[in-house]
Design goal:
The protein has about 400 residues and is of the alpha+beta class. It has 13 helices and 18 strands. The mean pLDDT is about 90. Its EC number is 6.2.1.5.
């Protein structure tokens, strides 16, 4: 579950990470009131207006602007709220901005020049350990840094049995070239950041930039946070942060119906029971010359109601040219699934794309006969290759 910047900062702050303070506003007038309140709290005269959408690169799309007075706060907020923000991480249509974060200006003058760093905490899947990735090149796309100057990216792997050790936090500060007060502040920052990542059950914390201010404070100016969905039962307060407006509406609907669905860019809809079989089915479609339009696991209770719901989800995608249903009947009987397909087909009326059904396992022979005798425009298959050939045939 992805969070907005202001939500991620709330979590960071609750674990003692110093953040760029800000207040959320949904209208230009609210933005002005937020700016006034921030001035009272922080003394800041300038404010940063940030679009709150689930996408990076907001500044490049015009979603992050500096306001030097209250009139500019109102004008900029009015332009950003309601805009369709296009960034390198959105579609060509962009994402509608419903709210902005009015944040304090932290690039104030002082004894030293402000410096920006990149830092993230995530799982290194190849080692099974959490990892802090960091760089002196903050404010830039980390992909660009990795490609052009990989020697400027550092990593610190953490043994899950013992957690982040003091010398590791100090090594991060040392590799960033810090000393004195900034060194101590960065050590505290890294320690608190890892604690926030670990105890919030997150899958990603990305801070870009981490700022060393002109008076050597270390603060999170941005926050990209993704919470592990499977751990939300431990964090009911985090679950309330979900903004469904930012998510794929079909995926939201699927979740509400208890279906595991991921939207993809392809032309063959998939309806499968079991994640492993779903992945194999997607490979099958690719080998047949097609592209999977979705990942859809209906689970072990593929009755008529669930099958019909799955059909409707798949058919919401206008790119779908065929549907492949691939069910292995272990716990669920194949004839029950077949009857579910038939009932769903009849309830939905005419379906204008070819449907191939491969049922294997318990009562597969009965299931095939049910489909063949149904009189519906549904093709049945028993073997994997047979299903692949039928997919290839309908796409040609």
């Amino acid at each position: 579950m992805n969070l907005h910047e202001y939500q991620g900062k709330e979590i960071l702050n609750s674990f003692g990470v110093e953040i760029q303070r800000g207040i959320v506003a949904t209208t230009p007038k609210e933005a002005v009131e937020a700016a006034k309140k921030l001035t009272e709290q922080t003394g800041t005269g300038w404010h940063v207006i940030k679009a709150q959408v689930h996408a990076g690169g907001r500044g490049k799309g015009g979603g992050v602007k500096l306001a030097k007075n209250l009139q500019e706060v109102e004008d900029i907020a009015g332009k950003i709220i309601g805009m369709d923000l296009v960034t390198p991480q959105t579609s060509a249509e962009g994402k509608r901005v419903h709210q902005v974060l009015v944040a304090e200006d932290v690039y104030y003058p002082g004894d030293n020049e402000p410096e920006e760093y990149y830092m993230s905490v995530l799982l290194n899947r190849s080692t099974g350990r959490n990892m802090i990735m960091y760089s002196t090149e903050g404010g830039m796309d980390i992909e660009t840094v990795a490609e052009e100057t990989p020697h400027l990216i550092f990593t610190e792997e953490i043994d899950p049995a013992v957690g982040l050790l003091g010398f590791q936090a100090r090594r991060v500060a040392f590799n960033l070239g810090l000393s004195g007060k900034a060194f101590k502040e960065m050590t505290k920052f890294v320690t608190a950041l890892y604690k926030a990542y670990n105890e919030s059950d997150s899958s990603l914390f990305e801070i870009n930039p981490v700022l060393k201010t002109s008076d050597d404070r270390i603060i999170a100016v941005d926050a990209k946070v993704s919470i592990d969905d499977n751990a939300l039962f431990r964090h009911k307060d985090y679950e309330e942060m979900r903004d469904k407006r930012e998510e794929n509406p079909v995926e939201v609907e699927a979740k509400e119906k208890g279906l595991n669905y991921v939207d993809l860019d392809g032309n063959v809809g998939c309806m499968v029971n079991g994640a492993g079989l779903a992945m194999a089915t997607m490979d099958l479609i690719k080998q047949a010359g097609g592209e999977p339009a979705n990942f859809l696991d209906v689970g072990g209770t593929a009755d008529a109601e669930r099958v019909e719901a799955a059909f409707k989800l798949i058919l919401k995608d206008p790119s779908v040219k065929a549907i492949l249903i691939n069910i292995f009947g272990g716990i669920v009987r194949c004839d029950r699934v077949a009857q579910g397909v038939i009932d769903a087909y009849k309830n939905m009326g005419t379906i204008h794309v070819p449907i191939i059904v491969r049922l294997q396992g318990t009562n597969a022979d009965i299931a095939k006969k049910l489909i063949d005798d149904s009189g519906l425009d549904v093709q049945s298959a028993i073997e994997f290759q047979e299903a692949a050939d039928k997919v290839k045939e309908v796409l040609s």
